[in-house]
Amino acid sequence: MFRHFGERRTLTHNLQLATLLSFVAGVVNINGVFYVKTLTTNVTGHFAFFAEEFVLTNYRLAAIYIAYVICFLLGSFVSGFLMQLIARRKKRMSPVLLPILLEMFTITMVWYYSYTAEWTTQKVHIVAASLLFAMSVQNTLVTLVSNSIVRTTHLTGMFTDLGIELAQLFFYGKPTDRRKLKQSIFLRLAIIVFFFLGCIIGGFLYKFVSFHALLLAVGILCYALFYDALKYQFYFLKRRFLSGI
User: Fold this and answer.
1) CA 211, CA 107: separation in Å to the nearest integer?
2) Could you say which of 19, 159, 198, 215 would form a disulfide bridge with 27 (CB–CB 3.0 to 4.6 Å)?
3) Which of 173, 176, 146, 174 is nearest to 158 (CA)?
4) The domain containing residue 94 runs over which residues?
């Protein structure tokens, strides 16, 4: 799921990546909306909020929305830097290991901070900025691993690409082209569905356990890492065993 890059990736690899991490993004998204009343998985809306506050001469709030955007940019930079660093120096280590551990750590710290710090406006901004950072880390690692095929933290591009590909179904006649197109459509639908499921399930959990629901995202990330490491170790030992026969 995480260790295959470029042409080595299959539809199955991308589906595993897309379903798990889009679900995580959905959980984080709805918890951010419930807890701090703002978007925490993408920055598109924050540019509009910045423009609104700037026009109304609320420069302090405008600066906060720019800070959100910078945190998202910083998450992307750190994630990309870590992946390049691992890819160049640690041949057997998965390039996504450190970014996912960083994402898990950030979300866990947000959860811990939310229950230990006094409720203030500053706390709201710290929680929102931290979740934006974590989601940018995830978005970048998914983009690099899938060669820009999979996006998991926002759906604007997904719906645009889905609409384009649905239209192309009426014009693609070759069986091989139609098969690839249908696989791409299926992948995009999976991302959309699992993002929605993450929002819905995460929302219901929030009703019962409040911000503890955020730990569901951490648990899924932990499972994804464990599954990937276990599967890699299995195939590694299998190759060694077969080569020794």
Assistant:
1) 11
2) 198
3) 146
4) 6-244
Ordered per-residue pLDDT tens for the chain, 245 residues: 666 666 667 888 888 888 999 999 999 999 999 999 998 988 988 999 999 999 999 999 999 999 999 999 999 999 999 999 988 876 667 788 899 999 999 999 999 999 888 889 999 999 999 999 999 999 999 988 888 788 887 788 889 999 999 999 888 878 888 898 999 999 999 999 999 999 999 999 999 999 999 999 999 999 988 887 777 665 555 566 666 55
Please provide the size of the chain in residues.
Answer: 245
Cα separations in angstroms, 122 against 114, 118, 223:
12, 10, 33
Do 128 and 36 contact (CB within 8 A), yes or no? yes
CATH number for the domain including 186?
1.20.1250
Which structure tokens are listed for 68? 């959100």
Distance CA 10, CA 72 (A): 29
The structure tokens listed for 50 are 């910045």
Q: How many whole angstroms separate alpha carbon 95 and alpha carbon 85?
A: 8
Amino acid at 25: A
d(CA 151, CA 142): 7
- Lookup: tokens for 184: 């791409």
Q: How many domains does the chain have?
A: 1
Asked, for residue 16, whether it belongs to a domain, the answer is yes
Between CA 221 and CA 135 the distance in angstroms is 12
1 domain residue, yes or no: no
Residue 159 exposed, middle or buried by CB count within 10 Å (0-12, 13-18, 19+): exposed
C-alpha–C-alpha distance, residues 175 and 43, integer Å: 39
